[in-house]
Each structure stands twice: as C-alpha cells, then as structure tokens.
Write a structure and sequence with these properties.
Keywords: Membrane, Signal, Transmembrane, Transmembrane helix. GO terms for molecular function: protein-containing complex binding. InterPro entries: ComplexI_NDUFA9_subunit, DoxX-like, NAD(P)-bd_dom, NAD(P)-bd_dom_sf. Pfam families: DoxX_3, NAD_binding_10. With 432 residues, the chain is of the alpha/beta class. The protein folds into 2 domains: 297 residues, NAD(P)-binding Rossmann-like Domain (Rossmann fold, 3-Layer(aba) Sandwich), CATH 3.40.50.720; 112 residues, no CATH class. 52% of the residues lie in helices and 12% in strands. The protein has 17 helices and 13 strands. It is elongated, with a radius of gyration of 25 Å.
Length: 432
C-alpha cells in the first residue's frame, strides 16, 4: 500500500494557497491547511483538515510542522495594517519555521514575489527579501518561487483590481501608462508548487514564475476588458498621479481599520515600478514554461458572473461610503436637531422626556452603526444592524406615527432603499 505524502500549507485559504491545496490533493498528497479564520477556511475548502493559527502570534512551530514531508508557505500580507505586520509575517514567522525545520528531511516551498529586493522602495518587497535571505542562509531543504502578477479564475487583490478597472463603464481610466506588467497563471503557480513538492526541482532553487513577455498596464487592462466581453471604451481619461496618490493615502488609512485594499500605496508603487520577472532560471531548473496572458485567458471562460464581479467590486467601497455617510449624518443631525425631532413625537402625545430619550438613543445608534461599518471586522455586522434598526424604526413609527407614511417627503418610504443598500453591502462584504 502506497503511503501518501503529507503537505502542510500555510495561508491555505488565500488565492495562491487554496490553489496549491487543490493541486496537491489532485497530485495525491494528504493536505492540511493553516489559516487564522476557521469560518473562512471551511467556506473556501470545506473538505480539508484545518489548523486554525495566526502566524503573527506565538505558535508551537515544532508541533505544527511535525510529521509533514513538505511545507508550503503561501502566507503573506501587502502592507502593515490593523490585521497585518509585515516584519512578523514575512521574516519572524519564516525564521521560526526555519529554526524547527533545520536538520529535518522536510522540504519547504516558499512563495515570495518577483522583484523582491532589500533596496526596494516598498516595505513589502524589502520584508519579502529579508525573509528570502533567512531561507538562503539556512540549512533547510528549500525552494523559493517568485510569481509575477497572478491571474486565475478566483479574483482577489491585484487580479480583482485588474478586473474592476477593466469593468469601468464608458470611460477608460488611464493610470500608470509606463508601468510594465508580466503575468502568471494561478494554475502554473500551483503546478510549480506540486513539481517542487514532488522533488522534481533541485533544493536551493530560486526562480521567478512568469510569462516571458510584458506589456504596459493600460494594455493589460484592455486585454482583460476584451476578455470580459465589454464594449470598447468611448473615451479615455488620464488619471493624474496626484489623484492616484490620494487614493493610496486614503486606502492606507483604511488599512488601519482592517481593510486590505489593493489600492494601498504599496500596491500602487509596485505597479508603477513594474512587475516583471525572468523565466530562464525556472526553465533551467526543469520547470514547465508558464502561459502568456492571452493563453491564460483562453483557458478561462468569461461568464456573466465575471462581468458582474468586475462591476460590483467597484461598488463595494461606494456602498460602504454611502452607508457610513448616511448613518453618521443621521446621527449627527439627530443630536444637533434633537428639539425639532422630539417635537414630532410630543405633537402626537408623547411626553417630552420620553420623546427626547427616543431621539437621543436613536441618534447614538445611528452614529454608532455609521462608524462601525468603517471597521472591517464589524462591517458585515453593521449592515445587519442597519437593517434591523431600519425595520425597528418602521415598525415603531407605524405604531406611533402612522400618518408619516403619507407625508409628502416620504420619511418612512425612503427607509426602504436604505435597507436594500445595507443588504447589498452585507453580501458584497463577504471577503472570500
């Protein structure tokens, strides 16, 4: 009876990690995933054995990796934020992993990034380079794979940004016209991991995973738009660099509230400096050639779901911003105009104290929900809270002031679109 080889995948429900898990399973490995959210893990790969662990926190590394033939490190983060610390994830965690693997027969396949350098202008590349250096200085049986921009059926991070930009209607936003981009298929990255895990690649190999050609960023977006089946843009709009910087600054601030936007400063700088790699070291190591972007897209079917995602991805921040603005403004107006608001109730027989209590409590709830949706971890719960409070307002208002349903300004009727928008936000905010 053949004993299955055992693989442990760190960051297993991420874009690359999940693809590696599926490819390893198909190749006959017994796979265990590691991720920090048990709920997300079960949703992405429900049949996989999981270990719930946060690599940024102290772990029993020896116990975690014991008994595995190969460890795949597909964990990573783009930028420091509420949920992420680059030094801890890219360097400290890898150092701890290396320390327990040294002297063992376990192979470590590490997913880095093309173009990493300790002299890079972004901490993402610098921290990745420091992590790679830890591996290179060790006695571990390691392979470092460095993909360029990963394109696959799943959309997350950079590949989601590409789809969203390609899906913008009517006007083509021309951004970073001088940036050069090379791509690699998610399928090719997963295949390279399997080839390395099976022993088909020599230990110590460090190689980019990339197509041989590159193209400018607007051309890449146009190729994606044509693949999605959208009509050509009727106009072009050059987006000034200062606007892009402003977007990046805003996304950075939101990062400290837990939002992992691919429009943060790090991602913009990486794109501006180009995402390219050299396929030759991978070929010399015996790796299979990676598909070009047209070949990648030819293997993928552009469905209505793809087109809907491209359009709705842009609507996610718009929906959150509108809900936050509406509920925060409602709360502030409630506090500022509490006497006027209370008069609506006192004119219908309520005592002043009761009316004022209703107004102030309602204003506080509105303000709290508007602020809560800006915090990523609470955003979906805030949407549910908005729906519940809106229904409560309608129910209580119908009992206490039913005449407002006929008010020409429609204060009750206008609550209904808000409920629909909050429900839409709840759905859009499903992260993976």
């Amino acid at each position: 009876m053949t004993v299955k080889r055992k693989a442990l995948v760190l960051g297993a429900y991420g874009l690359i990690g999940a693809a590696c898990c599926r490819a390893l399973l198909a190749a006959g490995f017994e796979v265990t995933g590691v991720g920090r959210s048990a709920r997300t893990a079960q949703r992405v790969l429900p049949g996989l054995p999981w270990v719930t662990a946060d690599l940024a926190r102290p772990l029993d590394w020896a116990g975690l990796v014991a008994g595995y033939d190969v460890v795949i490190n597909a964990s990573g983060a783009l930028q420091d934020g509420l949920r992420d610390d680059l030094e801890t994830i890219h360097v400290t965690a890898l150092s701890n992993l290396v320390s327990v693997l040294e002297g063992s027969d376990t192979r470590l396949v590490h997913i880095s990034a093309a173009g990493v350098s300790e002299g890079s202008e972004t901490e993402f590349f610098r921290s990745k380079a420091r992590g790679d250096a830890v591996l290179k200085a060790s006695n571990v049986d390691f392979i470092i794979l460095r993909p360029t921009l990963v394109i696959g059926p799943d959309a997350y991070g950079g590949t989601a940004l590409l789809r969203a930009t390609a899906g913008i209607p009517l006007v083509e936003p021309v951004v970073m016209p001088d940036a050069r981009v090379s791509c690699v298929a998610l399928e090719d990255v997963a295949g390279a991991v399997v080839q390395a895990a099976e022993g088909g690649i020599a230990t110590g190999t460090i190689a980019d995973l990339t197509e041989a050609e590159s193209r400018d960023f607007p051309k890449t977006v146009t190729i994606l738009r044509n693949w999605l089946g959208f009509e050509p843009w009727s106009r072009r709009l050059r987006v000034p660099g200062v606007v892009l910087q402003g977007i990046g600054f805003g996304a950075d601030l939101l990062g400290w509230l837990g939002w992992r936007s691919p429009l943060r400063t790090t991602a913009i700088r990486q794109l501006q400096s180009g995402i390219e790699g050299d396929p030759e070291p991978w070929r010399r190591a015996g790796g299979r050639d990676c598909a070009t972007l047209p070949q990648i897209l030819a293997r993928m079917t552009p469905t209505r779901q793809e087109r809907l995602f491209a359009r709705m991805w842009v609507m996610t921040p718009v929906t959150v911003a509108i809900l936050a603005l509406f509920w925060i403004t409602s709360g502030l107006i409630g506090f500022a105009q509490r006497d006027v608001a209370a008069e609506v109730l006192t004119s219908r027989g309520f005592g002043l104290t009761s009316a004022m209590s209703f107004v102030l409590i309602g204003a506080a709830i509105d303000l709290g929900l508007g602020l809560a949706i800006l915090w990523r971890a609470a955003a979906q719960w805030a949407c549910l809270g908005m729906i519940a409070v809106s229904l409560g307002y309608l129910g209580a208002g119908t009992l206490m002031t039913p005449d407002l349903w006929a008010d020409p300004l429609g204060p009750f009727v206008k609550v209904l679109p808000g409920i629909a928008l909050a429900l839409t936000g709840y759905i859009l905010l499903e992260e993976r």
